[in-house]
Amino acid sequence: MSRSDNTVKKFFEKIIEKIILLNGFACILFVILIFFFLAKDGLALFKVSSPIQFFFGLLWNPLAEPPQYGIVPLLLGSIMVTLGAIAISVPLGLACAIFIGEIAPRWMREILKAGVELLAAIPSIVIGFIGMTMLAPFVKNLFGLPTGLTALTGSIALAFMAIPTIVSIMEDAITAVPRTYKEGSLALGATHWQTIYRVTIPAASSGIVASIMLGIGRVIGETMAVMMITGNASVIPHSFLQPVRTMTATIAAEMGETVIGSDHYFALFAVGLVLFAITFVINFFADMALHQQKK
Amino acid sequence: MKRKALSLMCLSVLFTYAAMPAAYAARDMIQIKGSDTMVNLGQAWAEEFMMQNPEASIAVTGGGSGTGMAALISGTCDIAESSREIKDQEMEAARKNGHDVHEFIVAVDAIAVVVHPSNPVKQLTIEQLSGIYTGKIKNWNELGGKDQKILALSRERNSGTHVYFLEEVVRMGVEKGPEQFAPEVLMLPSSQAIISEVSQSETAIGYVGLGYVSDRVHIPAIALSNQGPFVSPTLETTMDKSYPLSRSLLFYTGREPEGTVKNFIDFVLSEEGQEIVRIMDFVPLR
Predict the structure, then answer these.
(1) Domain assignment of residue B285, yes or no
(2) pLDDT tens column, A90-123
(3) Do A245 and B90 touch (CB under 8 A)?
(4) Is residue B147 one of the residues assigned to a domain?
């Protein structure tokens, strides 16, 4: 009896092991399949339009005759909104992470952590909605602009979406710094603040870099909020107080209208491919930074 | 033994889920997809129709006319709502998938040009509008207004309204003309976004379907040429075709309508259905 029970147990063990193995590989398989799917349709664009026109074209005008598929305004739009969001969220996130990790008393730490995680749970459409009805008029009046739908408005809204990612990873990195480092520093007569910025932050720097990278990855792929509040004008941006059109908003806004298999459809896939490449590189560097910390 | 029972249970749960879609595929379920302009109108029709025919169930979703066409081609909707005519490419793709496309004109919509209530410009020609949207006219003082830079707003490219405005206004009726929206034109994702932006911004100009106009914005009269006549969009001027910017709102089906689909289209075209068009601030066929 017990013997047969054992074989059954072993049998289940094996099956479950295999299922878990399969699941592990499935994730990688999906990424590879998505990449090939994107590449297949994205690269088809270059049969009708040269890569030079795509990568260096200054006009995005898919409904023109002949259509113009220049990614430059979209790429610059995405980069601009992302840089703005990072410039806002990194100082805020760093301060928040230091406070949570090093300064706040235990009871407050738990409340703050829950609050930051709650911020991550707000759907992006809600942030877009608040951005459109509250933030855009505020930015418009503050700077006396013709419209509040600008790169800056998008950056501010996206900063709030990046902060949870940045804070939680930074806070992990900061609390992971060995106690002995801090105690050594304090024993040498350094103040609490000196210890934080001379010892703790440098020791956690690779985790901090990783958190910024993942924050960038979060922001550059965001679509809905950006589409609602950046104005989506496909100009080459010269200032933050100007409407911009991002790659994600372009794909979201135009995919519905394209005929499947048309040049415009392939052009949107090519934009998606560029976006995928960017997030891939960012994640790669974030991973490298995280591994460096572990060493 | 317990474990065996557990895994059996898991399996049976899995099978139940797998079998579910079949149970849900009720016979009188109609999927309507497409134009954002028409989504509220379609919803109003569907609600009234379902009130009278409790066994029918109609789901209406938006996404843009192009989305509706794509769904029609792939066979995932019964009726595609569209605020523009089907393109040749789409017709071909539908035929290739074995669909026999039928078109029904169900209502008429006027495109109203909207500006801020404080804007002194009370009338515009199509040529002037084309100049504004192609970036040739950049300041309101060129049109008799204040010395302010024009902020031109448009719908996104997935909108049938966008395509209509591009062909009839920006290209002045030449479908494949060379004119293009200037890169500076803001592309907003909804008609509501255009109304809210125009009502907040003194220098803005935008366009929306007549159903979206509210008293927070001003509507300049439009003329084909500067000889006039300048006409404001209303129910009457759209019905007698004296207002130049109007278009048909359409239904497309992938085959000869029958059953509930046919009843629904008959209802839409009936006196009652057209009364709903009037209530929803669109223009009825008769």
Answers:
(1) no
(2) 999 999 999 998 888 989 999 999 999 898 888 8
(3) no
(4) yes
